[in-house]
Write a structure and sequence with these properties.
alpha/beta, Rossmann fold, 2 domains, five-stranded parallel sheet, 11 helices, globular
């Protein structure tokens, strides 16, 4: 049976992956996840390929475990090969290995930290609703209720701060900086997460760290003066 969402995960993250599935299904999404949805006596690899082919989006429960998993890497590679959108949902602050970065470098990211996780599951559902059903993305960061807000306003960012972030990012990644900033604004729940997501677009760890430090310093200063 065709499902909207294919959930990819590493076995040590099974509990968190099934929490994600429960949140998605509670919000009306049809989800495929192994081993729950593998038919009895079926060929495991064939079932996975069929499920990826039939899905509309892959949610990757991303962690240090999935980062090192050959099975996860094969699933992501198949999804990208079949032009299936991959949405990495990070359950810990880790950057992709080189083998996964090749497939995920242009993808949008969502994070499942800091606690409580329910807030991030709600944001994931809102993002998927917008992507798959054309529903507006709701800002549930503060109230838990659906409010359609400008993401920059939700993070209390001034035009000058937005311009700084875009220019600083463009120094490293070029003219796509504006698009990357827009995507990060749509998912970040605070300024720290925003700078971390933008930094993940950079190629080296020293560059990422310097970017984060510079941006956080500026945003902290402007936050105190506002």
């Amino acid at each position: 049976m065709s499902r909207e969402v294919f959930v990819s995960y590493s076995q040590p993250d099974r509990e968190r992956a099934f929490e994600v599935v429960a949140a998605l299904e509670a919000n009306g999404f049809s989800v495929w996840i192994a081993p729950r949805d593998v038919s009895p006596s079926a060929d495991w690899a064939e079932e996975i390929i069929d499920a990826i082919t039939a899905a509309r989006v892959m949610v990757l429960v991303f962690s240090s475990h999935s980062n090192a998993s050959p099975q996860v890497r094969r699933e992501v590679e198949r999804a990208v090969h079949k032009q299936l959108p991959v949405l990495p949902f990070r359950i810990e602050e880790v950057l992709p290995s080189k083998s996964l970065e090749y497939f995920l470098s242009s993808q949008h990211w969502l994070d499942a930290f800091p606690p409580p996780p329910e807030t991030h599951y709600a944001r994931l559902c809102a993002h998927l609703s917008a992507k798959l059903r054309g529903a507006p993305v709701a800002d549930i960061k503060d109230t838990g209720r659906s409010r359609i807000l400008d993401p920059a306003l939700a993070l209390s960012l001034t035009p000058a701060e937005l311009q700084f972030l875009e220019r600083h990012l463009a120094y490293h990644v070029g003219p796509v900086a504006g698009l990357l900033l827009k995507r990060a604004l749509a998912s970040a729940i605070d300024r720290d997460q925003l700078t971390t997501q933008l930094a993940s677009e950079l190629d080296s760890e020293p560059a990422r760290r310097q970017f984060i430090d510079t941006c956080r310093s500026l945003l902290t200063q402007t936050g105190r003066s506002s």
